[in-house]
Specification:
The complex is a heterodimer of chains A (about 400) and B (about 325). Chain A is of the alpha/beta class. Chain A folds into two domains: about 30-155 and about 300-360, 3-Layer(aba) Sandwich (Rossmann fold); about 180-290 and about 375-385, Response regulator (Rossmann fold, 3-Layer(aba) Sandwich), CATH 3.40.50. Chain A has 13 helices and 15 strands. In chain A, the strands form five sheets. Chain A has a four-stranded mixed β-sheet with strand order 2-3-1-4, with helices on both faces. A four-stranded parallel β-sheet of chain A has the order 8-7-9-10, with helices on both faces. In chain A, α2 (about 45-65) packs parallel to α12, α3 (about 90-100) runs parallel beside α4 (about 115-125) and α12 (about 320-335) packs across α13 (about 340-350). Chain B is built from 16 helices and two strands. Chain B is globular. Chain B has a two-stranded antiparallel sheet with strand order 1-2. In chain B, α4 (about 60-75) packs parallel to α6 and α5 (about 80-105) runs antiparallel to α10 (about 195-215). The relative contact order of chain B is 0.16. The chains are: A alpha/beta (about 400), B mainly alpha (about 325). At the A-B interface, α1, β3, α3, α4 and α7 of A face α3, α6, α13 and α14 of B.
């Protein structure tokens, strides 16, 4: 009663004062309504505008230019409903509720990041929407998949990345190329801690010696002390499970201080085009998470289309998972021939999809894509996938890391 | 304003009984809006409960809210729900007690800065503990609850809060606090134990904030220090309370409802220009409603009958006070 009154009063008042009239939602008939709430502002905006939003826009543009998604015997164009969750969990929850119950969209794309995907999980589950998360790294993925059967975790677990790296190191050591000493720095936040924990366990299990194992707080500006301290220990391998600002900072400092270990590994943002743009030839040989198969025509084509449509290259990690998730959703809708969510979910669970990641299926208990590249390296200006070695199109590690070029 | 207490309480009970029926008529989105309003209604009212009469601007709302949320994150899966809530209440009370004892002698801007720093301090301590001791920063809260349950709990808490606020307003404690707000030195001279009075109210106010955090936590599944101790919650609480007006118990509600709806409407219609428009709206509010909604209503109803009493103007200048 009072709520209903106020609900109209607030907007009316505001529209009047601003002189902006509310735009009536277009009548939805011959279209498929797709909604998403992503962080356009706030601390998550950097990640969301690099990985999530460009791919959503690219996909919508391509689908609509091609005439739409084929549902039964109709071609339905996509109509987008978008919100900004402002990097706040509660806003993400409310926006997705709104998409589901007010806007009654046919499908909902996932927000950016682990926290917001977990926050909205119960709502996707409640209304039966498939939740195809392309930007969530969580060790809980298998548990989440069991709890929310229509959720898919394309980026896998933190453990898989750390273990991929250790697998690579074990191989190098068995070839006599590196010793036992490993230095590891990690950011004191969700992702850094999860990976450091898994990395520590895997390194210790393989009898590596952690000569340096420290965390640094979120927002650390001065990274020279870490690099200096590690440099003094002279390890063959330096691993940093870092976030974008410190990934750039650590690389910069290592270059300035002339610290050039045989294996130099940094975290999130190493696979971003930004990294290559900033460091150029100095990026050569740096190892990180993710990677692609540059000889794959589908990958090449995707990078070209992405660059043409949004004006910048995709990152070589979660962009691929995000886009593959969209392709899988589209193919599932077309295969199901209906917008019925239960039927589309059924296809998603059991089908195989042709994506930029290759032929993928989620037909497993953990609802993850088996065999994605977990470790990659900058080689000749491209971030190529290395591990798993048996993965189609895997490249060989360039070893040792070349010296930093003179500045 | 001269209504008999029994009547007021009965009327309040009737309103809350009616609000309890909302989950039966609202859809999922309506419920999430109702939860947002209930959440901020409690935070802003609890904030005004202490800051209204004493005029201490506290930015520590989210410190208590976060402690409540974190208690649930840590204990949520191992203990039954009522015990978890009780533990949150104990944590919040203890923290408020320690903080209150050590800081309520501060005044003005020192208190504002301290209360803001407190949030950061607790966030860093929690982060440090999680990194060094438990080796994880994000915690997962898998509790089987739904929107209606959260809403009813918030509504129940709001009912208790309004009843408490109403009774305090009529008690000696309430009177003592108004004297302190007027002039603390005078209050001490007339024999009021000012520190004790302030402390009691500070702890009470913090208790409600803590419980709100505990009730809201299961909604997000995943909690880390940045989520639990987001300073925006503190700022929004202050803005909403000041817009509504802090001199009356129902004042903050008049800020919470329009602002929650406004935020939501702006986000829905202008997702790309949200912050820009929000800034303009805030400026308009400050220009058009410098005394808050409650102040404007009071002024409207009094206009032409008698001149504006000085107290009301002073009350709202609390915003500008250092």
């Amino acid at each position: 009663m009072r709520h209903i009154l106020k609900r109209h009063l607030g907007p009316a008042l505001c529209a009047a004062t601003l002189g902006i009239a509310a735009i009536a939602p277009a009548a939805a008939q011959e279209s498929i309504r797709i909604g998403y709430a992503v962080s356009k502002t706030g601390p998550n905006a950097g990640g969301a505008t690099t990985t999530t939003i460009p791919n959503y826009e690219l996909w919508v543009k391509e689908v609509n230019e091609a005439g739409g998604i084929k549902v039964g015997n109709k071609q339905l164009k996509i109509e987008v409903v978008e919100y900004d969750d402002r990097s706040i969990s509660e806003e993400a929850v409310r926006s997705v509720e709104r998409l589901a119950t007010q806007d009654k969209v046919d499908f909902i794309l996932t927000p950016w990041g682990t926290a917001n995907n977990l926050a909205v999980g119960p709502i996707f589950d409640k209304y039966g929407y498939p939740q195809i998360a392309g930007t969530s790294v969580t060790d809980m993925a298998p548990k989440l998949a069991a709890r929310w059967p229509n959720s898919y975790w394309l980026l896998g677990t933190g453990g898989s990345y750390a273990e991929g790296l250790v697998e690579l190191l074990v191989k190098l050591r068995s070839e006599g190329k590196i010793g036992d000493d490993v230095a590891m720095a990690s950011i004191a936040d969700g992702f850094g801690i999860e990976l450091a924990k898994a990395g520590r366990a895997a390194l210790e299990a393989n009898k590596f010696k952690l000569v340096y194992d420290k965390t640094y707080p979120l927002g650390t500006q001065d990274l020279a002390p870490i690099v200096n301290e590690v440099k003094a220990l002279n390890p063959d391998v330096f691993v940093a499970f870092s976030y974008p600002p410190d990934t750039l900072g650590l690389t910069d400092q290592a270059r300035v201080l002339g610290f050039n270990p045989k294996v130099f590994y940094t975290g999130v943002a190493t696979a971003f085009p930004l990294y290559k743009a900033k460091f150029g030839a100095a990026a050569e040989g740096v190892v990180s998470l993710g990677g692609i198969d540059p000889s794959d025509p589908k990958v090449k084509d995707y990078i070209a289309r992405h660059t043409a449509a949004v004006g910048k290259e995709p990152d070589r990690w979660a962009s691929f998972m995000t886009y593959a998730g969209l392709q899988a959703l589209q193919q599932a809708i077309e295969k199901a021939g209906t917008l019925d969510k239960a039927k589309v979910n059924e296809v998603l669970r059991t089908g195989t999809f042709d994506t930029v990641l290759g032929q993928i299926s989620f037909d497993n208990e953990s609802r993850q894509v088996p065999n994605i590249f977990t470790v990659g390296q900058w080689q000749n200006g491209e971030f190529v996938g290395l591990v798993p070695h048996e993965h189609h199109g895997a490249s060989q590690l360039v070893f040792p890391k070349p010296a930093w070029p003179a500045q | 304003m001269t209504a008999r207490p029994a009547l007021v309480i009965a009327a309040g009970a009737a309103v809350f009984a009616a609000l309890a029926l909302v989950p039966f008529v609202a859809d999922g989105y309506g419920m999430s809006l109702a939860i947002a309003i209930a959440n901020y209604a409690i935070l802003a009212t609890a904030w005004a409960l202490f800051s209204g009469p004493t005029r201490y601007i506290s930015l520590a709302t989210v410190a208590f809210f976060g402690v409540g949320a974190y208690t649930v994150a840590v204990l949520g899966e191992v203990l039954p729900w009522p015990i978890v809530v009780l533990a949150a209440a104990v944590n919040g009370t203890l923290l408020a007690f320690v903080v209150g004892l050590s800081t309520l002698r501060l005044a003005g801007i020192y208190f504002v800065i301290f209360s803001f720093g407190l949030t950061e301090l607790i966030r860093q301590v929690v982060t440090w503990y999680e990194v060094k001791v438990t080796n994880t920063v994000g915690r997962y809260v898998f509790l089987d609850t739904d929107q209606s349950m959260i809403y009813w709990q918030l509504l129940g808490l709001a009912a208790i809060l309004y009843l408490t606020g109403y009774l305090i307003g009529r008690s000696r404690l309430g009177f003592a606090l108004r004297v302190i707000g007027g002039d603390e030195t005078v209050a001490r001279h007339v024999g009021i134990d000012t520190t004790r009075a302030k402390l009691m109210l500070f702890v009470l106010s913090a208790l409600f904030m803590t419980l709100t955090g505990a009730i809201m936590a299961p909604r997000w599944t995943y909690i880390d220090p940045a989520i639990a101790f987001n300073p925006q919650i503190s700022f929004q609480t202050v803005i909403m309370a000041l817009l509504g007006g802090v001199q009356r118990l129902w004042g903050p509600l008049l800020g919470v409802i329009p602002l929650t709806l406004l935020f939501d409407w702006l986000n829905a219609n202008f997702p790309n220009h949200y912050l820009l428009i929000l800034g303009i709206v805030f400026m308009l509010i400050v220009y058009l409603l410098p005394q808050g909604v409650a102040g404007a209503i009071g002024k409207l109803s009094r206009s032409r009958t008698k001149p504006e009493p000085e107290t009301d103007r002073k009350a709202h200048s609390a915003e500008a006070r250092p």
